[in-house]
């Protein structure tokens, strides 16, 4: 069942899958071709044949989509790191990680509104932002660590699906905790300062999006330094490779796993604030879709690899923001923006169909690869 | 032996990320033979079984009754008539003894959802056949696996009985070729001697052709018509026990360099 | 984190007391959480015992009691401890634990009185303070919770130290009273149906809740029954178990027939609301049985099960409704059902084929994705020409049964009978398949997929089959749902539905038909479904929270479920199982002298 034999159908199911793969590729290619044709000339016969109502995209529209894609992708990437690290070390999907992200966004909402009430938000925006990032990282770290301690540690030796089911329960629990404690309505962040939301003359990009990309890059760099350059990072990599042997070599496995959750939580905390900055509104199910998309990013990038998560995040972000208009709209699908989430899911399914180990290969311990 | 071999392996190569676990191995097994495969640890013996049963990707050629096995799924290989046991006993531990043997007749039976739902005559007949065949197979091992044991979970069996059940489970797939991976490993001399006798009876009474991986030279000498020696993925000897055991290359493989000169 | 900071301090405290402090602190946090979730205030309207106890107070009183019970437990392997805790220690532990739990509320009362955190926390309200202080001021509230907490902790500890017989009697009494209070509407409805209102008039207060007299009588009667009936039920159980094959089957058949009779007769006696509840329970029993085939028998964690429910609903709607936007063949329901089965099979194959070879956990997420994609497609403008988008399809006719009568939402009793019929089909299908060649193959795949493959089982086909059977049962659910509700909207098919069905299956006991049914009856009946109310209507705001907590707790404490299948619990607790078997002398250890193969296991009991 390795990649080489994937394209050679043997059974009926194989045939079906091959047809599915070819179909998926055809849809993407035809859509893209139609898009290109439309861009060259809206009235050319090929584009008309595929979708008579197509209008094509203007340069600024396209640029806007790409930048939004990058900004959201960077955010997904940060969340994806948490999925990826936990999968790399413990070999299960921490489904509740998306909720940690939601907790971060909620924390940011509460703190920033309090700061706004005190007048600090406008007076010192950068300082306030750093403050809410710090608070959110702290709260998310705590959430993730408590989660590990209460729910996952007792299940370390259980069959792989048991902790997954548990994490679904936790996810449900955290979401509804937010409902009962904070109420079921969506809540807004305070207004961003004008200088940030204004479109910059340079390429006409909104400042918020640039900021989101920069913050994500800094967080990613910090994480990379932690994992590659410190003793803690070395311990994490050792535990990911083989828990038992790492333990024999004197690594405190429990503590390392807690640190993995803590770091993943902190990254989700940063991502939560980025969500707030980008969308300025948060509700209890905010964590669900970004969580799934971030998981898709981790899979696309090759679960277990950090750089892969970030790249996967950007890929999913771009695909989701440009995909509907680039592929579906030229094919004549109406109301494409409603299908953004469906595109993100289709992306996950597509990648797993075409290349189950992700675009950049997985990094897992030997037993998890089986 | 003449005529077409039952199993004809030509230039079989298996690679694990650059490491060649099997390197151009040629093996022929004729119908009715009992062939032992021996060799030091890491020689590629179990990999050979895995390659035949499509558990690993392999290149070269594996012909079974003249048709290739390469590119088939593992279950297709089994339905062609090749069954195996596992070195590290892998029973369905929470299924009962008889269920283990019943479930392995899957590829020889065909009643599907329809029969089960409508409880057709064909379905009942087949279930009865599956059950009686399972009992017959288990009966081959004497009184150990029958009676109240039939309905005990396999995990409750003793080690030796689990090994026996593994063989029973492989027999239930009604193979022509039986691949036994260290069938007596971990057994005491009494048990091991008994099982050695059973391997011979497997051929006489059930008509299986048998390839057996074994470390215990007593057993090898006792059961095998022919012995094949693997070392570092290469076949270094093929002949009867006497020939092979006196082959200098074999002694070297087992005892290391210089052993032959002493 | 606090645990890490405090650990040097904690380590100096003897083990038993560490446990007390830890559980006590947990209890305090739990109490504060429960209070701030709004549960006490919101549930205060539901009376359990008039006028002294409401459901709201039950929610907060339970914690110290449970703490006391937990802390009153004698430590395991007590005989190996240097100085095992005395009874007094355990009682003291229970009291302190309860005190801490109650203390959580005391502190909360103080905080409520002096700070205002209403902004993020919506339940930080004067009403909560009022509730906590019994309307007598903060100081009273502070003191009374310490007293109540300590008292209940002590009571819990005492209960734990009492003889097992006393324990059982008291537990029966408590459960009977609480059960009678929860089942109130059902009981009242039932006695009204047989015109025996007088029987319960003294028991229930006019505006809900047990009366003091009712409580007393129930407690005494149930206590006496459990005191006298001690062990009787067990005896009967053992007797049935000891019967030989055919007789046992006959007893089982009689039991099933009796249950069937009750299910057929009961709807005739109860009113509309209860029938509605029964129909909802039945619908979830049907869905849970379908998911059970996939998750419980074949071991595939399908999180997108709602997809099949949705497909069943929408295809029935399109095929039967005159209002269907694009094509409206207006088939009768039963004809449509046959087509729906085929559609479900196709969708099952279509969703199943791409995911079936994936690792179990990837498969879970991808099926979740499929579930969501299907909903998004039904919702989208793109396909709204077919399925009505967010407007859905409305005014769908009910089921016309041979022109004799129509089953639709206006008559829940008929809906219940329809559901019952399909549940019976689903039970039959599960039961037959489990004991067939296919069922054995599912078992093998669940246990060890590569080996199952090596034993000649086409694992892909076998797993697909499970998917398809599950899909068909799910689509039955959808078809009935449409007939019952008379309309379909994409919002009925949120992922949440999948998760609730999963909780039902896991809570009841994966792989066990009776377990799954019991799970649906208890959970959907008491708490309610995603949109359907249960007996505790007041819980509707909190039921999702409880479902989540329940799922986590089940996985940690009892992954095999309420009524486990014997096999599943063996899988999940293999080591314990083997140890027990070894202690009973059932393990086969004697290799050299083969036993005679008949009779009882060597040294067996």
Which key terms come to mind for this protein?
heterotrimer, A: about 375 residues, mainly alpha, ABC transporter involved in vitamin B12 uptake, BtuC, two-stranded antiparallel ribbon, 17 helices, about 75% helix, disordered N terminus, disordered C terminus, B: about 260 residues, alpha/beta, six-stranded mixed β-sheet, four-stranded antiparallel β-sheet, about 40% helix
Topology:
The complex is a heterotrimer of chains A (370), B (262) and C (605).
Chain A: H1 3-6, H2 12-40, H3 45-50, H4 59-90, H5 97-117, H6 120-123, H7 125-152, H8 161-182, E1 187-188, H9 194-197, H10 207-229, H11 231-241, H12 243-248, H13 253-279, E2 281-282, H14 288-300, H15 306-328, H16 340-354, H17 366-369
Antiparallel strand pairs in A: 1-2
Helix pairs in contact in A: 2-15, 4-10, 4-11, 4-13, 4-14, 4-15, 5-7, 5-8, 5-13, 5-14, 7-13, 10-11, 10-13, 11-13, 14-15, 14-16, 15-16
Chain B: E1 7-16, E2 19-29, E3 34-38, H1 45-52, E4 59-64, E5 67-68, H2 74-80, E6 82-84, H3 97-103, H4 113-118, H5 121-139, H6 159-172, E7 177-181, H7 189-206, E8 209-213, H8 217-223, E9 226-231, E10 234-239, H9 241-245, H10 248-255
Parallel strand pairs in B: 3-8, 3-9, 6-7, 7-8
Antiparallel strand pairs in B: 1-2, 1-4, 4-5, 9-10
Helix pairs in contact in B: 3-5, 3-6, 5-6
Chain C: H1 2-11, H2 15-36, H3 39-43, E1 47-49, E2 53-54, H4 55-71, H5 87-114, H6 126-133, H7 138-161, H8 164-182, H9 184-193, H10 198-201, H11 212-228, H12 232-242, H13 245-269, H14 272-297, H15 306-320, H16 333-355, H17 360-379, H18 384-387, E3 399-401, E4 405-407, H19 412-434, H20 437-447, H21 449-454, H22 459-485, H23 495-508, H24 513-527, H25 543-557, H26 566-572, H27 574-583
Antiparallel strand pairs in C: 1-2, 3-4
Helix pairs in contact in C: 2-4, 2-5, 4-5, 4-7, 5-6, 5-7, 8-11, 13-19, 14-19, 14-22, 14-23, 14-24, 15-16, 15-17, 15-22, 16-22, 19-22, 20-22, 23-24, 23-25, 26-27
